[in-house]
Amino acid sequence: MASVFWPCDVARSGFYYGWDHPALCVAGVLEVEEDSHADALLQRVARSTEAQVLIKICGTPRILGRCIFSSFARSSYPQPDVEMFCGPSRTCSAAYIYYHRRDENSLRFYALGSNGPRLSDLQDEVLRSSLKHDFLHTASLRSVSNTGQILVNQWNSAKSLEQFIEHEQRAQATVIQEPNARFKETSKFTVINKKFQCTIDGIESSTNLFWRVASFVFVYSREFSIVVQQIESRVRKLRRLLRGVQPVPNGDVRLKSSQYIEFYNTLWIILNDLIIGIALRQFLRQDRQAFLHLFKLAFEDKAVHKIRQILLWLDSWPAGLKLNTELSRFYSHSFMGLIALWNRGFQSVIPLIPMLLSALELGSGFGATMALAMVCDLVCVFMTHVQLCYLVSVTVYGHLLRLAASLWNLFRGRRHNVLRNRTDPWDYDVDQLLLGTILFTLVAYLFPTVLVYYILFATMRVSTILVYASLETMLAFMNYFPLFALMLRVKDPQRSPSDIYMRVEPTKGGNGVDVSVESHPLPLAVIFSQYVELWKRLAKHYHPFRLAWHVMSGRVLDTIPRTYIHSTT
Amino acid sequence: MQQTRPLLDCHPELSVIEWPSFREYRVENWQLARDGSGNVVRGATSWGWIDLCLPVVISFIWPRFRGSTILCAFVVLVVGFTMYCRCVQVLHESVLVFPAYGIQLETHRGYPLLKPLFVSRRFIHASLLEDFVINEGLRRWNVRYYLAAVHGSSTDKIALDVAFENILPHFPVLLEVYQGVQELMFYNHTDNMHTPI
């Protein structure tokens, strides 16, 4: 006995119509006297333009039979007595599986599961090959057929079909009215969007020197400055917002829902950002003096004087280590000179710090993300002296390390073969060997001095990078938090479905069960999938082992490149 | 509604229930003792001796820890955790077969004497179901069998879902379920051969 999919909310007698392929799915009931009337009505609807979209994804609906509801059988789900026109005519009650008909404007729908497989590519290949070699398993892979998707489309469009039929029944001449007042607004927004797009295209293609220089500066500074990146991404989001106000043509409720969610998610994030930014601004304003004092104290004391103290300490036999006096003195004096230079520059900038603070306040008025981006940039700018000293010391250390490695090879009588990328035994001349050995001794004895200074600046650089990385992470998380999707999942799980399941409940009568089709809400892993991806990339770049390896091998530590993060989002 | 136990002598925990629109293969979380004595070994117990030890232990340590809030909180946490563990035991798992529509793998959890509190369900539509197989798994020196539904997803990757994942019944039970599902889902009666529907 085949099961019939019956809508939960239909309990009228009449002729029922729906689809019979791939399964018997009833869309609604027509209360007319003759089945020829019902047939004619359905034909008229099937010819109209809106219904064409529906028919393309679901198939052609037909009159399936007649149903009668007995007035005394009261249960939570309708139990009709049906007489089917197709196949063997029988009046016995078939088995029903109930589904919910959803109005298209309510944005609730069923979805057949984008549950990402938890297996990897390799296991997917293994399973595929085992299926191919199974001689009992005939025919091609079933995933090709999409009967499941057609069935889900039918469930999603049943209510719309009924609405079309009701309109036809009332014999209205006009077509379904357009989505009302929003249409006027959308035209205004599209005009703004178009104007914006035109200006951007104009700037990009102009030969005017000013615009060319400006765009060059913009592109160049995008690599360095987080504030510029933040401005750019915010502008892009706003443009997407403007574009997203347009209505989507009927028929695809999934696309409409995802556009709706994306639109409101962006809107909510921006608004939340602004609110938090304004609160932050108030906070900064109130405690201005304290911040100024804190800043001056923290910076000048720690970042400048402390380094100088440490450099002096390193110069005079730190912890009993006997470093090479001349080299150590040269190193410490040159670094102190660099820092003093920078300090002088900083002293001249000190009177401008209040202006900086008010710029920060202004920035936080545009959103907490802007304030965070400015803090990021400030950290970068104020640690420039450490960065410079680090670059110098890492270059020296790196060169020394590579020199030592190459001389060590010479010591053993080998040479690095660049063509084959390996070390081969090689005969050196005596004078080469002598020179090499002398150099090797020199390098070996100078190495601890260079190492000590390198460790100092590498530690400082690592801590700066970690602070910078955490700020950047926070910025990325604040920019892309799926707030709306989470809220929707809590408030109305049927609007973000991930999978269907059959719920089996015992009937109130006692024996027998009711089966209904429900949907699972989107799992959290899917909602946060972008985050997980972002986190993976950040963790890969700032992994402690990777950082430690870079430090030891004398490679330059850098912050994560912009394209690496933003290619997901 | 018709309930039968096909393997009554060795594996009475399997029951097959025929409903109008589907067939349910239910495996309950108990089994007969393997030594042939006929004793029932329960997988989900309603109480154990540790549940009696817990109040005794708490009554001994309570005077010592009355003052500090952290330890009180810790004790509450432990008690809460024990109660939670008791309430999420697997009561029974089933495979529901909807002919021509798909199969659904279910796990019912709860407290053993009451109705199930939590149910986790996984529906695989017939168009996505590639095959329903018994796989041989090797764990240390043992060979264990498990039922798996091989299905595709919308991302065009094939994945496995294990039926009776927590109970993992023995082979005769698996064979019975396997034959039932193959007959209902993959057997085309008109052609008298196994094809995808």
TrEMBL record, chain A:
Q: Which InterPro entries match?
A: PigQ/GPI1
Q: Name one GO molecular function term.
A: transferase activity
- Superkingdom classification of source: Eukaryota
GO cellular component: a single term: membrane
Provide the transmembrane region boundaries.
390-411, 432-456, 462-488
What keywords appear on the UniProt entry? Membrane, Transferase, Transmembrane, Transmembrane helix
- Any one GO BP annotation for this protein: GPI anchor biosynthetic process
Checking Pfam families in the record gives:
Gpi1
- Name this polypeptide is given: N-acetylglucosaminyl transferase component-domain-containing protein
Q: Which organism is it from?
A: Suillus subaureus
UniProtKB/TrEMBL annotation, chain B:
Domain spans labelled Phosphatidylinositol N-acetylglucosaminyltransferase subunit H conserved: 94-164
Query: What Pfam families would the database entry show?
Result: PIG-H (PF10181)
The pathway noted for it is: Glycolipid biosynthesis; glycosylphosphatidylinositol-anchor biosynthesis
Please list the GO biological process terms of this entry: GPI anchor biosynthetic process
Give the record's GO CC terms. glycosylphosphatidylinositol-N-acetylglucosaminyltransferase (GPI-GnT) complex
Q: What family does this belong to? A: Belongs to the PIGH family.
Query: Mind telling me what this protein is named?
Result: Phosphatidylinositol N-acetylglucosaminyltransferase subunit H conserved domain-containing protein
Which species is listed as the source? Suillus subaureus
> What taxonomic ancestry is recorded?
Eukaryota, Fungi, Dikarya, Basidiomycota, Agaricomycotina
